[in-house]
Every structure is written in C-alpha cells, then in structure tokens.
Amino acid sequence: MNLAILTLKLLESRRRAFEKATLDPMRAQEKVLFECLRRNRSTEYGRRYGFSGLRSIADYQAAVPLVDYEVIRPYVDRMANGEQNILTKDRPTFFGSTSGTTDLPKLIPTTKYSDSKKADLLWLWSYYIARDHPDIVRGKVLAIISPEIEGVTPSGVRCGAETGHGYRSLPGPVRHLYVLTPEVFEITDYDARYYTILRLSIEKDVTDVATLNPNTIILLCQRIKIWEKTLIDDIREGTLSGDFSIPAAIRKSLERRLRPNPRKASELSRILEEKKALLPKYFWPKMRLIECWKSGMMKLYLKELEEYFGNVPVRDMGCLSTEARCSIPISDEGASGVLAIQSNFYEFIPKDAPDRRGKRALLCNELEAGKEYFIVVTTAGGLYRYNIDDIVKVTGFFNKTPLIEFVQKGLSATSLAGEKLYESQLNEAVSRALEKHGLLLEFFSAIADVRGRRYSLLVEFSDKSPSSDEEKRAFLATVEEELLALNREYLFTRNAQILNTPVLKVVRKGDFEKYRAKKIEEGAHEGQFKVAELTKDQDFEKNFVVEKVIELVKR
User: Fold this and answer.
1) Per-residue confidence at 101, pLDDT binned at 50, 70, 90?
2) For residue 354, what pLDDT band results from cuts at 50, 70 and 90?
3) String of b and e for 351-378 (b: at least 16 CB within 10 Å)?
C-alpha cells in the first residue's frame, strides 16, 4: 500500500476529531486548560495560584496573572538547577533555548508529556500534507534545522533548538524519509555544514524541502554554483570533500554511508552543460512541496524560490515558536493556519490596546476577522498565560475556529531571518558602542532592510564626535559585536550567513532636526516626539540625505 494512503488511513480518526472540535472551539479549549490545571495543581505555581479551586476560564483569568519570560525566569532557573514540581509535575527532559529582550537566553521547559502533545499536532500536520501531496513519500524530505544540543543545564538536562529536538524525536515510521541525520547539523563551520547538506541531498530524489526560513533555502541554492564541480566529483567517487572542516567523528560516520554514484554525477554534468546552471528544478524533477514561513517579512523572499525551484507549491510552517506551535496550515494557499485548539489554551489581546497588561484578554470565540492580536498561551510544558510577544492576524474561520497568520514580533521587534531583534537590544548595543568609542549622536534609527537582508543604521553624528571613516567603522563593528552578544538568534543567523553584516549610513548634518520639525508641523506632539530606533519601514531612509555608507568586511 502507498505510504501516503496508509498515513491517511491511520490518521483519519485524528483529522475527524480535530475538525469536529473546530465546530465548538471553546469546548476543546476548556478541556485543554483544565487537563493542564488538574495535572499541575500540586506544583509550586499551581498552589500559589490555586489551580485546584478554579472552576471556569473566568476564574483562571482572574487568579493567574499574564506574564512574560522575565517574570517566570526564577521558576525556570530553579527547574534548570534540578528542582522538581515547580511549573510542571513532570520532570523536564529538554529546554528549548531562544533569545529574549535581555542578553540572557530564555529556556523553555519540555517534558515527555508536552512532547506527546506536540507529536499529536505533528501527526495532524502530516495528515494534511499527505492528503494534498501524496507523491512526497515517493522521494526524500530535505529538512534543515538547528542543532538540538547547544549546552546542558546545571542539572545536566540538554538545551538547544526546539527544531533540532523535534527532528531527533521524529517517529520511526517517518524517519527514513529524511535525507539528513541529526549529526549533520552539529557541524559548526557553516560552509562545511552547507556543503555537506548539498553533497548528501543532491544525489537523492528529493520531493520536499522543509525549513523555517526561506532565506536558508536561497542561501543553500546560491552555494551550488560555488561548489558545483566539487559536488559532482564527490558524488562520482563516493567521497566527502576534504576541503571543509567537518569533525572527524561526523565525517567518519557520514563517509561510511557514501557510495560511488557515477550515473548521478554524469546526469549532473549533463544538466550543467545543457542548462548552464545546476538548479534544484533540474536535478530534483520530482519536487512537490516547499515548507517554510510565508508570513511577515518572509513573504518578500518567496519570489526568489521560483528562480531555483520553478512553480513548486509552498506551504507555511504555521505560527511556530520555541514556546508553542499555535496553528495548523491545511492548504498551500496563503500563510494562515487553523488555531491548534486541542494542543494549547489561547488568549488574545488586541494589538491596539493602550495597556496590554490591564486589557481583558479575549478568547478564541471572541475574535474578529481582519483584526490583529497579541497571542497568549497556556501550554503542557508549564507556561501559564504567557505572552509570546507574537502578533497574529485573524484571516477568517475554519468552521467556528479562527484561522491565524503570523504578522510580526512585538511592536518593538523585527525579524529578517528569525533573529527577533528587539529595539531595546539595539539601543543597548549602540549605547555600549558610543561609550567605548567616545562618540555622540544627534540621532540613530536602524532599518530592517528586507532586500539587503541586513540592518541599515542611519546615524547623524554630533559635531563633537570624531569623524574619520575608520572611527565610524570601528563604531559599527562594536555595534555588531554587542548585538552578537545580546541576541543568540542574531548570532545564529549571522553565523549561518542568512543575515548579512550591518551597514552604517551617515546622514547629512541637520537632517534629523528638519525631519523632527516636519513631523511636528504635521501634528506630532513636540514633547512626546520620538524617532523609532528600529523600524520595518523600507521608505524611512527617504527622509534623509545619506552622505556616506560605511561597511564592514563580511564575516
């Protein structure tokens, strides 16, 4: 029996249960919430907020506060140090690591129980993929993720990327569909990692490419031209080039599985000769689907995928973070997904609420199509009324359950390549650089430059500041160093080369004052006027005359 047909048969009951639940989403939400509260009522957090005495969602909202990570950090730190029964009755088996508004990473607890809830959601995701693209199982899946293990907590529990943890935990029946083994992502040199990914995948019949960030796919495709001859030679000989820094143990493990493949090498050589380019649309003719983020700023990169893959459908990965997977895309159209009502409990705060902490959180049956909301989650992993700081848009409804699409990180954050850079982090980096180099500014504002895949720092230096190009370049280099230290996702995306080096754009003296005067004339309050220090407005630079562009040597 075709594996796709078998998958559909096995998962049909899950699909029916989920779609039935979407007819009455609040019933499903109550079940999720009170299962979580009952399970963890005897924990320290559960006792503090009286989980055992809560009888309704309204009770829960009245008793338990809205929190962000810094509020619960002390609880998580104690769990990381080995204390039990703090946020969950279950022992943590892994901590997902991600950046936050400070230079300390956030650690998100994972337990066997919460893993099982995530697995249920992954099976549902698999159902809709198999339904719409049954031929995927006739080839291999190329998934590109981050390494699972980036360190261990003081109590010895692993911590790292949630994507890596999920990849290593793939169910046995589907693991053989994937081209790459987890060890590939433990190669720390990124050129070596990208080369290895290409070397192992090009000779396979890949039908599905999956990764969160479309930039990663584009970057990988751009590398093919650089290494095309070496790739063909390695495939012909069954080798793994010695020109790349691959740890000996990983190299040995990978080389054991390689075999000479002169037939594939000849095919690739013929493609290169006839097409003048070695592109996925030529060497992966059975490609059926690309899975990646399509919403927010990522949508601007999707057009580039066509150059490499042709007219291959793209399915959004859904509203997915280290904290929770919140939606299930069930079609290739758009970037919306059905709210995952059987996995987590959700609340929503209108984006335009003047005081988010004091605003009553809405439930999923109170949302309106076309409106944007901050999403708040309660999860099986021990997060209670937790503000992820993600803004989502309700694009419609599936039965009576909202369809949501990711819009952006919180109002003071941007993400070009998954780095989630906060205005507060940029401000801190610039402040440290100014202090180090003894400089003064009239103003600065960073633009998230979508097309350049980098941050452009618009700066008007004070007359009292040194003005040589080398001093300005040193200032920019320090800003970059501080951002790398403050934000682990920024560090990752820069090292992975999917985010380019920042650039300093020195604006004409007096331009900031002219801009300020113009905005006040247009109605801005003089005493409250403030230029955004981090903006996604691609036209903001047009308000100034850039006299000089200072760049760093690319890392």
Assistant:
1) low
2) very low
3) beeeebeeeebbbbeebeeeebbbbbbb
CA distance 372 to 59: 26
CA-based nearest residue to 344, from 368, 330, 361, 364: 364
The DSSP 8-state label assigned to residue 50 in this structure reads T
161 contacts 148 by C-beta, under 8 angstroms: yes
- Strand 454-461's sheet: what is its strand order? 534-535, 441-449, 454-461, 503-507, 546-551
**Is the pLDDT reported for residue 2 higher than 70?**
no
Q: Which residues contact 312 (CB under 8 A, 6 or more apart)?
A: 281, 287, 288, 289, 290, 305
Instruction: Give the per-residue pLDDT at 527.
Output: 41
Q: Which residues lie below 8 Å from residue 43, measured CB to CB, with a gap of 6+?
A: 51, 85, 86, 87, 88, 89
Q: Write down the residue that tokens 């999956």 correspond to.
A: 210
Of 160, 144, 163, the C-alpha closest to 152 is 160
Residues ≥6 apart with Cβ < 8 Å to 370 = 393, 394, 395
Could you tell me the pTM of the whole model?
0.81
Q: How far, CA to CA in Å, does 377 sit from each of 110, 295, 323, 385, 386?
A: 15, 20, 9, 5, 5
| Residue pLDDT, tens place only, 103-148 | 678 999 999 999 999 988 988 998 999 999 999 989 999 999 888 8
C-alpha angle 284-286-292 in degrees, rounded to nearest 5: 75
For 195-232, the pLDDT digits (tens) are 999 999 999 999 999 998 888 898 899 899 999 999 99
Confidence (pLDDT) at 140: 95
Return the pLDDT at 62: 96
Run of H or E including 405? strand 401-409
Residue type, 186: E
Distance between CA atoms of 506 and 550, rounded to whole angstroms?
8
Quote the tokens at residue 522: 């247009």
Q: Please enumerate in sequence order all residues whose Cβ is within 8 A of that of 20, keeping only pairs 6 or more positions apart, or say none.
A: none
Q: Is the pLDDT of residue 357 over 60?
A: no
Residue 343 in tokens: 């996995």
Per the CB < 8 A criterion, the answer to whether 117 and 97 are in contact is no
CA distances, 362 to each of 57, 68, 79, 376, 494 (Å): 11, 17, 31, 10, 38
